[in-house]
Write a structure and sequence with these properties.
Low-confidence stretches: none
Order of helices and strands: HHHHHHHHHHHHHH
Oligomer: single chain
Helix content: over 70%
Distance between the termini: 11 Å
């Protein structure tokens, strides 16, 4: 985990350097982010479902999904009493950042690196409720979108479509159906770029943050809640429920991710204090480089 975190940190530094030196422009960062979200990450998700299915795996995926639903409910409960003393724009960013983490962009590569393909599979399932909340409750914090638009954003998100495809392929393997080798190798080649491109893109996004005044009380308190308190609360619950250790570890690890990069993107789009939202992403991502290895040590083993 520590070696993987060092790798993640160095890849983020590469993104920072590329942006600071002008080798990666703002437009390039946006395009790279779109490429990762629309093709690279979905290919990783599809590949993670290409495993032999048994009864235990199906049960484990159902448990992961239920734990994820419970996790989103815990986030919502925290939002009910936290951030009340903040200004409206800040409160919106803090509530969104509490409800939606970077479990997709950063968590999935980490889950794959720490737990292998089965970790990525569980992570894909874990993210379904979060993506639903992201494009419904989360988006509603910034704007009053129509219900039809919210449903469309959820159902037609590339990562959700990839999960549907992955489930079909997993079922197909039960009956002897596999993808043609050339197509499967192509998906694998694209998927192998996931960690590097994701972290470089995050580094590029964080390059716009002014570090001179980034460490204020609110961003530090938020980072403590997002990176330490929430995963420890979930850890206590899954240990009490005696959930399978691998399932529990993946879920807890993903619950300890920093603020989603979409926090800054939505704040910029809807003019809800984008500078503050960028600070949330930067500070929580920075401290996650230290908290995630510690969290992994607490979890202990696969």
């Amino acid at each position: 985990m520590i070696n993987l975190q060092i790798e993640i940190f160095l890849l983020i530094v590469v993104g920072l350097i590329l942006s600071k030196t002008g080798l990666m422009s703002s437009l390039t960062r946006k395009q790279l982010t779109k490429i990762v979200l629309t093709i690279v990450l979905p290919c990783s998700i599809i590949q993670s479902f290409e495993i032999d299915v048994d009864h235990d795996l199906i049960v484990s995926c159902i448990i992961v999904f239920l734990v994820s639903v419970m996790t989103q409910f815990i986030y919502w409960l925290f939002n009910c009493f936290l951030w009340k003393n903040q200004s409206l724009a800040r409160r919106i960013n803090l509530q969104y950042g509490t409800m939606v983490s970077n479990a997709g962009f950063m968590g999935m590569p980490l889950a794959q690196g720490v737990f292998g393909d089965i970790g990525l599979l569980y992570a894909s399932i874990f993210l379904i409720p979060q993506r639903v909340c992201m494009w419904s409750y989360g988006l509603s914090l910034y704007t009053t979108s129509r219900k039809q638009d919210l449903i469309k954003n959820v159902l037609f998100h590339p990562c959700i479509i990839a999960i549907f495809i992955g489930v079909l392929l997993m079922i197909g393997r039960m009956f002897g159906f596999v993808l043609p080798e050339a197509l499967d190798d192509t998906i694998g080649a694209i998927a192998s770029c996931n960690t590097a491109l994701s972290m470089i893109a995050i580094g590029g996004i964080l390059s716009d943050v002014n570090v001179d005044d980034v460490f204020d009380k609110t961003t530090l308190f938020y980072s403590m809640i997002r990176l330490i308190v929430l995963p420890l609360v979930l850890l206590g619950i899954v240990r009490f429920l005696n959930i399978d250790i691998l399932v529990a570890n993946v879920c807890v690890l993903l619950s300890g991710m920093p603020a989603a990069s979409t926090t800054a993107m939505l704040a910029q789009t809807y003019d809800k204090d984008p500078v503050f939202s960028s600070k949330l992403v930067f500070v929580s991502t920075l401290f996650s480089l230290f908290t995630l290895p510690l969290l992994s040590m607490i979890l202990g083993g696969r």
